[in-house]
Amino acid sequence: MKNTRLPLWLFAAALTACTVTLPPPSPPAARAPQAPAGPAAQARERATPIPPHDIDIAADCQRTEEDGFREDAHMRVASNDVRSLSWKLWVGRHGSCHFDLTEFRQVRKTPHIELRAIDGSGCTLMVWQDPRRVTLAHAHCEQHCTPGIYEQAWPVLFDPRSGACAQIR
Fold first, then answer.
1. Backbone torsions φ then ψ of 78, nearest 5 degrees
2. Which residue of 27, 100, 108, 109 is 20 to 30 Å from 53, comparing CA positions?
3. What is the pLDDT of residues 124-136, one digit of tens each?
4. Residues 158, 165 contacting (CB under 8 angstroms)
5. Any signal peptide, and if so, which residues (predicted)?
6. What is the pTM of this model?
């Protein structure tokens, strides 16, 4: 009997020898104060705004995509004053949205153009230009669309040189 306990005792001693006891965790180190970020670091942290400049465009875009999305947009802007605007877009066969300048008033010229619906609904149209395109976008304009399609109604993009539909790719 003594012989059967000896190997078990040796096994327990060997197992105890392999056990590692870790010291208790130390308190979290205090964070070293960070130096104020310079302009280059701040620019990396947030998007740089598009610099404002006058938009002058006679834009016409009629396009039908393979997925059935279609747009017919006409806009005239001179020195950031919207002179005419008519925009209709279709989301396949599910419905459409329509925007006409007669239903809006211009409330901002810079840093981007902004038009607000005169009915007080909060619908806003925005126009801005970057080096590759002039964008006409909408926000909070569900009432200008067929119910259920607003989330799929994308902005229209114009080529700033020709006024035609901008290349999406």
1. -130, 120
2. 100
3. 999 999 889 999 9
4. yes
5. 1-22
6. 0.69
